[in-house]
Each structure stands twice: as C-alpha cells, then as structure tokens.
Amino acid sequence: MPEGDTIYRIAVRLRPILEQQRIAHVTARDSRLAVDTVAGQIVASIEPRGKHLLIHLANGHAVHSHLGMTGSWHVYSIGETWLKPASYAALTLSTERAVCVCFSPKTLELLSPDALRRHTHLHRLGPDVLADDFDGEQALVRFRVRDDLPIGEAIMDQTILCGVGNIYKSETLFKCRLNPFRPVSSLTDGELRGLIVAARRLMRANRTGHDRRTRFQHDGDRFWAYGRSGQPCLHCGQRICMRHQGTLGRSTYWCPGCQPAAQGQ
Known about the structure:
The chain is an alpha+beta fold and about 260 residues long. The protein has 2 domains: about 5-125, MutM-like, N-terminal (N-terminal domain of MutM-like DNA repair proteins), CATH 3.20.190; about 135-255, Helicase, Ruva Protein, domain 3. Helices cover about 25% and strands about 20% of the residues. A 4-stranded antiparallel sheet has the order 1-6-7-5. A hairpin with a 4-residue loop joins strand 9 and strand 10 (about 250-255). Helix 5 (about 135-145) packs across helix 8 and helix 7 (about 165-175) packs across helix 8 (about 190-205). The longest helix is centred in the C-terminal third of the chain and has 16 residues, at about 190-205. It is globular. It starts with a helix and ends in an 11-residue tail after the last strand.
C-alpha cells in the first residue's frame, strides 16, 4: 500500500530522471489528459505531498497522481522491457534517456495553474509528515477539531495529518501505547504531540530503501503489530488483535496488553 514514505521515495527516484528535462513524448490512456500541454515541456520540480505526487511543469501545469491501493511509478531505460503490461499504463513521460510510467493510479489528472490553486482536496490536506517544513502544532490543532473521532481514524484522516496510512497507523499507536478506539478528546495535548512525533520519526526512518519496517531488531519481524493478528505481542506476549475500523473498514492491529482500552470504553 503506497503511504507517504512510498511517494517520497518515488519523488526521489523521478527527480534525477525528469527534473530540468524536456518531455519528448507523452501517452495517456485517458483522452481527457491533454498530452499536447505536457509534451515538449520542461519538468520544473517534483513534489510529494502526503500520498499525492505533483509533477510541476515549466508552463505552470502539474500532473497530479494518487496511486490508491495498487498504483505505481516505474522508470525504464529506452527500449527496456516493462515489468507490467502496457495495458496497465495510464501515463508515460519519455525523455531522451528514459521512460517514466504510471501504472494503475487511483487518480491521474493534469491541473492548470488555476485548477492547482483551487483544488479542493489538495488544499484540504493537513501537514505532510515528511515535509522539511512540517508543522506539528498545526497538526495538533487539526486533531482537536476532530475530537469526536477515535484516534485510529483521526490519524488516517489526510486533512489532519498527511501521509499516514494503515501500516503507520497501527505501528505509531503501538509505539505510543495508545488504544486505537480512544476518542481524540480523551488524549492530552502531550499524548497527541508524542503521537505526531512518533509518526514522523517512523516514516522518516523509511525514506530510503523498500524494506519498510518499524521494528529495527532485524530478527525477522519488521512490524510490532501490523499484520500480526493472533500472534504474541513482541513486547508483552499477549495476542495481537485486529478489528475493522471506520466507514471504510480499514484493518487496525493493536495489543490489548500494551494498548489497553480506557475505562468505560
């Protein structure tokens, strides 16, 4: 599942290939994406924004992609065989040296400068956990606006904290010893600040490489709680639980021993 760290790594991978390079050829599966506006343009910059990727062009337009559950960006040398079928390719951006291919994205659109400024979803995003100028206090304020939510749902709300997905939700809450079903209103500002710091620390530790992990003992278990339902907790020995949470039914993993429910919960 592409989370904020995945998009960060994609941006790092694409920058030396595309930035300050002219796009020689473009193909798009969706005819609504105006390839003539992209072809011939210089790529000005590539910006990861949480789970979103923006490829900014010199003419002010931007290619916006959100990979959803199964999307990906690949880079190939000219003439190199692709690892996925061409029928899955939603967009190709070719320079003189390489081809960058976006496969099976959830969202792919070309935004004009005005559309980018007015984009409802992009401008509702909370602080990007991996951004150099990350503002943890703004994230705290946004958590407090949603005091009614369980913390396991709030930490996944991209308008509060941008970039955290299902894995980092469970792992951050475990590291902070917070029960996922506690309402935000029951947490102190200190607990929320600790949660924000922990999420940023875990995600920043995964900015390089593809072997995502939140447990660094290197003894075979990469995660403390995520994906370990029914297995003993690596800290206290109790069985890890899993429950679907929120309107989208996302899987939440937690240890009832390390993350006990609040009284009356």
